[in-house]
Predict the 3D structure of the following.
Amino acid sequence: MRRVKLGVIGVGIQGEGHVICIKSLPNAELIAIADVDEKRARYIAERYGVPKVYRSHEELVRDAEIDAVTIATPDFLHKDPVICAAENGKHILVEKPMATTLEDAKAMASAVRKHNVKLMVNFENRFNPAFVSVKETLDRGEIGKPLYAYIRLSDTIYVPTEMIKWSHKTDVASFLMSHTADLARWYFSDEVHSVYAISKREILKSMGIDTPDMYVALIKFKRGGSAVLESSWILPRSMPSIVDFKLELICSKGTITVDTQKQGVQLFGESTWSYPSFIRLYSIHGRTVGFLREALGHFVDCIAQDREPLVTVEDGLADVKILDAIRESAAKGKPIEL
């Protein structure tokens, strides 16, 4: 298996995770990083031993030494790096959502197809052991066919007010529901027929952040299955975890549930308590582990072996179509057919 040479575009919180994971992969070599914040880029490069630093994605993708890029820019800034990378013959892993508008997603998909490069959207929960076990149970037919799913993925208000500085340029549908829409589509192995959704703008808008507080969407699939997706990012800061992620899947011969919040550990201090998170990205005796690493490792393996990733550009485009319909339904107050 050949060694894949990579560049990372955007080295904020998620991009730093990409750097950590790539540095741990035996068949990957991290050549360069790029970020508009040059100070941040140089800090990450020095901390993790990355030889090249660029101030723009355009400069990075012109580097002939690089085979593939991972893109971890903010939600609304995926289009230009993806198209530029495709035009320069680089294979691409882009963070979810593929784009925040259907128009951008279609332009990205067109560029990827035109230049015959691979694109994987990082729906990292397809590599999360808890959610993978659900898919494998379904595929084995142990609990029959899926009939109905309820999937809740919400964050505390810390996320849109402090953790990210660009929440007013995205929404909770793109930031969180992109994950759950993909899981629902993956589990039902079907395409969405129609969507009916509601949203609310109150808490964040009152704080000067003009973005919805929440969305709730009823999704109906073409073969009759249905799912309710619920996402907000105004949960109280006092919660012991910033993420609340739950699944209930009702099937023709049984039910399966997932709750990732506690992850088996509860930590109690003198005046605080928390649920430490370690299954996504963690270090065990100096070795990087977790499902983010598994997702990036899968992408690198696919480039090295010249095969298609499990998550494709078509999956990313289908996800954006669902999110676009959710927003349209909430705005118009009526069901939207895809």
Q: What stands out?
A: The chain has two domains: 4-122+287-307, 129-279+319-337. The chain is about 35% helix and 25% strand.
